[in-house]
Specification:
- This protein is α+β, with helices and mostly antiparallel strands and about 110 residues long.
- The chain has one domain: Double Stranded RNA Binding Domain, CATH 3.30.160.
- The chain has a four-stranded mixed beta sheet with strand order 1-2-3-4, with helices on one face.
- Helix 1 links the parallel strand 1 and strand 2.
- It is elongated and about 65 Å long.
- It starts with a strand and ends in a 10-residue tail after the last helix.
- The relative contact order is 0.17.
Length: about 110
Amino acid sequence: MNINITGHHLEVTPAIRDYVQAKLGRAIRRFDHVTAAHVILSVEKLRQKAEVTVHLRGKDIFVEAQDENLYASIDALADKLDRQVVKHKEKIGSHAHEGIKRQPAE
């Protein structure tokens, strides 16, 4: 799995890179079909913005979060991504059982 981290109007230091990989790794490890993740960290006036696009097999998940602190926006981003991955995983699991038709009991 490939995590690409870029910064707009911001230098991505090794500490920030490690923090992002640790936070996103928790959410991404829940689901085995992740092929790549692209993280963009940016500064717009006094708002720190973090966004991620996670490429799954057959679907892309996009999440963004803003805060006054970059680390807080990364935390919020990881929480949102975790919820969306769980939701996607449940949706796939529920579709797997739709094809089974049950016979009524006699």
